[in-house]
Amino acid sequence: MLDAICQYDETQPVTYSVFKFQKLPADDIEKYRQTLVCPACAGKAYYRKASKDGKAACFGSRYHQADCAEFKPSAAKTREEQHALEVNQLVVDSDAMIIDFSRAPFLSQRPPLAAKTEAKRGAATLNKPSQANTTAPVKQDDKPARIATQGLEKLLHSLLRGSDLATSELWVYTDDKYRWRAKNLFVNFVDAEPTENGAPRMYWGTISHTDKERLWLNPAETKAVGIPIDKFSRELISGFGLAERRDFEGAGIILFGKCFWNKSKTRKIIQLWGNDPSRIYISKADDSE
């Protein structure tokens, strides 16, 4: 995308070319970047600054409509659309789904014992109590007959590409204790609200930018939410190839965490559950978006 509409002042939206936008003062770029939309379909957009290895600054969007003139086919988009089809089929064909948190890329570097433990936890899921709209244990005769297993990558891509997962009645198991209806579990950042007793959810969306120290992630969907990553930023940087701040910009993200207010109740915080990096997945943006 060479152009994007800035809606910082909703009464007077401004269309910027990427060449003009990148010349704005740094403070203005930080102020405007979370209010950008695609000029063709009004999908939420992002800005990526130029990279150290010579890649040009660009606008992009993970929310283009399928018939949007700015939606350019690429290998990454084709892959994400395939993931959406697979997850939609899973929703139709399955009675329940287990989220396999061991499928994150950096987990391949973990000791075999850790990976084995994750697999064992997943296998034990259906014999444990459930929560999310029911606190009763799962009875043997209530056990779903058709059980699918899926990792965070495909779940994230399917949500970004508009799959039916976030509105479905599918039972989803998040660990060896709890299950949830998918429609109550998957929450886009713009809809995030503090939950009773800090109950976790699967929050998803896109990243607008991170601070210079890479201690916080700022979602593109809303300025009212912040995601602290200071306790596991090194794992994210090495595990997902996030060498520059630019690599965070426009990236898709999904994480299992809890939402709560900051002390002054001016911003909602989404904290990764147990600060466990196996429960987060980041998909870098395609430069052609």
Shape: globular
Q: First CA to last CA: what distance?
A: 7 Å
Lateral arrangement of strands in the main beta sheet:
11-12-13-15-14
Q: What is the count of DSSP helices, taking H or I runs of 4+ residues? A: 8
User: How confident is the prediction overall: mean pLDDT?
Assistant: 84
What order do the helices and strands follow? EEHHEEEHEHEHEEHEEEEHHEEE
What is the domain total for the residues? 2
Helix/sheet category: alpha+beta
List unreliable stretches of 5+ residues: 107-140
Helix content: 10-25%
Any idea what the radius of gyration is?
19 Å
What do you see in this structure?
The chain is an alpha+beta fold and 289 residues long. The protein folds into two domains: 3-61, no CATH class; 75-283, no CATH class. The protein is built from eight helices and 16 strands. A five-stranded mixed β-barrel has the order 11-12-13-15-14. Helix 3 packs across helix 5 (152-160). It is globular. Residues 127-137 have a biased composition (Polar residues). Residues 120-142 are annotated as: Disordered.
Quick summary of this structure?
With 289 residues, this protein is α+β, with helices and mostly antiparallel strands.
Question: Which key phrases capture this entry?
Answer:
289 residues, alpha+beta, five-stranded mixed beta barrel, four-stranded mixed sheet, 23% helix
